[in-house]
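Need fresh eyes. Consider my entry:
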Amino acid sequence: MIRNLKNSSKRKLCNVLFLLPACIVFAVFVLVPFLQGIPLSLYQWDGYSDTRTFVGLSNYLQVFKDPNITEVVGNTLFFTLLYLIGCNVIGLLLALLVKKTSKLNAVLRTIFFMPFVLSMILASFMFTYIYSDVFYALLGIKSFLGNVNYVNPAIAAIAIWKDSGYCMIIYIASLQMVPNEYYEAARIEGCSAIKSFFNITMPLIVPAFTANITLILAWGMQAFDYQMAATGGGPGHASETVGMYIYKNIFVYHNAGYGQAIGILLTAGLAVLTVLLTSYLRRKEVEM
């Protein structure tokens, strides 16, 4: 009994030590800057001078009166929805295609995953060229990035192309953990492949859905790189996201306090949304 407790304590200590470097990096580069930004959001400040005027919660109240907020939040939510659905659907389909272990599937997995290792800026520049030159030369279609109605789906397509391979890897790991005995029992009972997928596979890979949906949701709500590199927020403000609006307020409009307030509200809202979504998906998970 005592030996088991010692072994358990050693394992917990080992796990903590493995997590410690990541926790330190997160604290230094994410948590501390975020906490430092909270006092700044209470001031009217241009971002570089020594002059600051305390305004209390005025910056936060201004967010709800800002006529531009509705548009940038709408752009962000629309982009995130397309990005979330596209990455998970394509990632799952790719995972089903290459889930079996073989040399060919190993090569295909590498090919499908390769876009994920590219930078967001490079991916955006690549697709900017494809939309503007390749599509027009082959199909006579003008760039989607210059069309108010198609710019957000076009940028979402870039993000989906880049990150679907990441979702695929998580789905493959989850699919390979489903016991074959369940499928064999289903075949004996006369279940079709479609019924087996929806009644066996889907319930058992909910943890993979939880991981992918929460990650893609967070990445989508914080979107900045794709839009900045591909369109700069245009045409007009049709593709401007909350992340871009924060950037412009701090570095372009020199209204750093207001930009910080928007960023804190975005972080708080995203945290609440993530917790609610994760809690809901956790309740749907099934023990194997």
Q: What stands out?
A: Residues 7 and 126 are 52 Å apart (CA to CA). The radius of gyration is 23 Å. Strands lie at 43-44, 53-54.
